[in-house]
Each structure stands twice: as structure tokens, then as C-alpha cells.
């Protein structure tokens, strides 16, 4: 009945609704259609059929009815960050599957609390709103100060971030430093030694991975090839144009995220007549848009769907008092070798 209701609300077929709610990949529907379906699912409080869910999980034990809140740490606008947008959508689907209810989505930087149900009036608030939830999932790198605030209101926490934070909470990670080293090793294996870096350089694991790779391979560091950005399209545009205008003799660019790399590829495409050499581009995240670039972007895959699923499993298990010790689960990254990296002539 819920699938039919969502289909009526969104103007798509029940089969499309089912595909999206069971697999929100880029191939099952357009982003616009997926957003409409997920928004409608939230509005009606969609939950999957209980018997089917139990059969799929091969268990008679359910956590149905738990209430949780999501804290977005250091994310000002979710729609402006494709990686965390896609991670958030994966988290939604995992929570739907587990029949867990989302109370609030909280932008921690702005201390703005959004009631989760569509149509509810937004209100300003504080982290204290999470005290009525049974647990909290944190997306993104979290400061010790923010975590202390959250813990003062709610002790059941699971964090999803790129690197181990060594906090006394459950966490699901995919090490950004290892991802950067994997990207750099791919470029070096293609004969590149003049490798530029565009991204955040302040306490950033991907920058550390870049530097470590140069050191371990006895490659001198050229600070003129390192461009500090906030990892948005606008800052990437300015940084790469500055690199091109400086006429630096780099043969490859390691971008800290796909958003940066996509902007770099666009600039290379627009200036292909003026650039007399091939410049390899590699990045980290493997967002959906990276499959639609020209050339297709070589990137390091971060397993968002699996990380979201495991965070939900950990949080529900902790709420049910099935474990008390802190758990850290680290997922490996892998390279997705497409067409944006070339052997260095």
C-alpha cells in the first residue's frame, strides 16, 4: 500500500518506487525522481513490509520503531556536497529498511534543527533537541567540542567519517590518507613525478597522503604545485586556472575530491587547444557525476552505501544494549580506473 501511495504522490510507477527504495543508484532513476520518491517516503513515514524485511535479514529480531537524529558536522548545505548528499541518501534507505524513524536532521555548524517530516515547519533550535531521540548518527568530521555537546544529550552515537577520530564512540571509516596514497601510487606507476595537488591542506588526511607518497618515492615537493581550496567548484576553478597561468610543468593533478576533479576536467576540455600536453587527473569519492565526465574520471571509490548500512547496524545494536565496548569498522577503498589518467611520456 505504501508503494502505491508514493507512486500516486510522485507520478511514477510502483515498480520505479520499489527500485529506488531498494537501490537508490544512479541507474535506477534520475536524481530528480529519486529525490521526489524519498521525500514522499519520509512524508508518509514509509516502512517496508515487516515479514519481507525479516526474511531478507534472516532474523526474527527487529528494531522497529526506534527514533534517531542525524547530525551533519561541518556541512552547511547538503545539496552543495555531492559526496555527503549521496551518503545521506544511502543512510536514509538503510534507516527505512530497519524501520527506524528519523526525528531531526541537524546542521551542527549553524545549530539549525529541521524536523524530518516533510511539511513540518522548520524551527531554529540547538543540539539539545536530540535528547528525545534514542540515538544519533554523525556525518562528517566531528570536533571533540561538538562530540562533547552531543554526548551531553545522547550517549548512543555512531559516526561516519573518512578517518579514525579516536573518540569513545562507534565509528565507521574509510581512511582518507590511504585513499590518497592509492591515488598517488596509480599516478606514480604511470610514470608521473610532477604531480600537483588541489584541495584542503589544513589537518587534511588526503593532503598528508599526498605528501607521504612524494616522500616515500623520493619525489621532491614543489609548493608552487600545491593549491589550498575549500574543495568547492568555484575554489577549484580558481586554483586550477592559477596553476595553468603559472605555466608550471606538472603532468598530473591529484584532486582531494571529485567535485574539484570534475571542474579541472571541464577547464581542460575548454582549453584543449591551448594546452599542448595531456594532464592526468585523479581524485577521491566516486560520486555519481564522476561517471559522466569527459573523459570519464579515474577516482578512488569510497563505499558510501556499505558505510551507511554498517553505521545503522552499529547504532541499533548499541541502542538495544547488545554491545558496550567502542567499535570501529574500517572499509577499504579501491581505485575505479576510467579514462582521465595517462602514461607520462
Task: Provide structural commentary.
With 345 residues, the protein is α/β, with parallel strands linked by helices. The protein has 3 domains: 46 residues, Orthogonal Bundle (434 Repressor (Amino-terminal Domain)); 127 residues, Rossmann fold; 126 residues, Rossmann fold, CATH 3.40.50. It is 39% helix and 18% strand. It has 11 helices and 14 strands. An 8-stranded mixed sheet has the order 4-3-2-1-5-6-7-13, with helices on one face. Strand 5, helix 6 and strand 6 form a beta-alpha-beta unit. Helix 1 crosses helix 3 and helix 5 crosses helix 11. It is globular and about 60 Å long.
In short:
With 345 residues, the protein is α/β, with parallel strands linked by helices.
Q: Main traits of this protein?
A:
345 residues; 434 Repressor (Amino-terminal Domain); Rossmann fold; 3 domains; six-stranded mixed β-sheet
> What structural class do the secondary elements suggest?
alpha/beta
State the low-pLDDT regions, or none.
Answer: 51-61, 116-125
Rg of Cα set: 22 Å
CATH topology of the largest domain: Rossmann fold
Specify the oligomeric state: single chain
Within CATH, the superfamily of the largest domain carries the name Response regulator
**Name of the level-1 CATH class of the largest domain:** Alpha Beta
How many helical elements?
Answer: 11
Number of DSSP strand runs: 14
CATH architecture of the largest domain: 3-Layer(aba) Sandwich
Task: Tell me the count of domains.
Answer: 3
Distance between the termini: 61 Å
Strand content: 15-25%
Strand order of the largest sheet: 4-3-2-1-5-6-7-13
State the major sheet.
Answer: 8 strands, mixed
What's the mean pLDDT score? 86
| Shape category | globular
Helical content stands at 25-40%
- Secondary-structure element order, N to C: HHHHEHEEEEHEEHEHEHEHEEHEE
Amino acid at each position: 500500500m505504501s508503494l502505491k501511495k508514493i507512486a500516486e504522490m510522485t507520478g511514477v510507477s510502483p515498480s520505479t518506487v520499489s527500485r529506488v527504495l531498494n537501490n537508490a543508484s544512479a541507474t535506477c532513476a534520475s536524481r530528480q525522481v529519486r529525490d521526489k520518491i524519498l521525500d514522499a517516503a519520509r512524508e508518509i513515514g514509509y516502512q517496508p513490509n515487516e515479514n519481507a524485511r525479516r526474511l531478507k535479514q534472516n532474523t526474527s529480531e527487529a528494531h522497529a520503531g526506534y527514533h534517531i537524529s542525524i547530525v551533519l558536522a561541518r556541512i552547511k548545505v547538503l545539496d552543495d556536497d555531492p559526496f555527503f548528499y549521496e551518503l545521506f541518501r544511502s543512510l536514509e534507505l538503510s534507516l527505512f529498511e530497519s524501520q527506524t524513524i528519523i526525528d531531526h536532521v541537524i546542521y551542527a555548524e549553524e545549530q539549525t534543527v529541521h524536523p524530518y517530516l516533510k511539511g513540518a515547519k522548520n524551527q531554529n533550535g540547538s543540539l539539545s533537541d536530540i535528547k528525545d531521540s534514542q540515538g544519533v548518527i554523525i556525518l562528517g568530521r566531528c570536533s571533540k567540542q561538538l562530540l562533547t555537546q552531543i554526548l551531553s544529550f545522547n550517549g548512543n552515537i555512531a559516526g561516519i567519517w573518512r578517518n579514525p577520530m579516536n573518540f569513545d564512540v562507534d565509528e565507521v571509516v574509510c581512511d582518507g590518507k590511504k585513499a590518497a596514497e592509492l591515488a598517488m601510487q596509480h599516478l606514480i606507476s604511470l610514470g608521473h613525478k610532477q604531480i600537483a595537488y588541489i584541495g584542503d591542506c589544513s589537518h587534511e588526511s588526503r593532503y598528508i597522503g599526498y605528501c607521504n607518497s612524494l616522500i616515500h618515492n623520493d619525489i621532491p615537493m614543489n609548493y608552487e604545485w600545491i593549491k589550498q581550496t575549500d574543495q568547492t567548484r568555484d575554489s577549484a576553478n580558481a586554483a586550477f586556472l592559477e596553476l595553468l597561468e603559472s605555466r608550471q610543468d606538472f603532468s598530473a593533478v591529484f584532486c582531494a575530491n571529485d567535485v574539484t576533479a570534475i571542474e579541472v576536467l571541464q577547464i581542460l576540455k575548454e582549453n584543449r587547444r591551448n594546452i599542448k600536453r595531456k594532464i592526468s587527473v585523479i581524485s577521491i569519492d566516486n560520486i555519481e557525476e564522476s561517471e559522466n565526465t569527459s573523459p570519464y574520471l579515474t577516482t578512488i571509490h569510497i563505499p558510501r552505501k556499505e558505510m551507511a548500512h554498517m553505521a545503522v547496524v552499529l547504532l541499533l545494536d548499541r541502542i538495544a544494549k547488545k554491545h558496550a565496548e567502542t567499535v570501529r569498522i574500517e572499509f577499504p577503498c579501491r581505485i575505479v580506473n576510467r579514462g582521465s589518467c595517462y602514461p607520462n611520456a
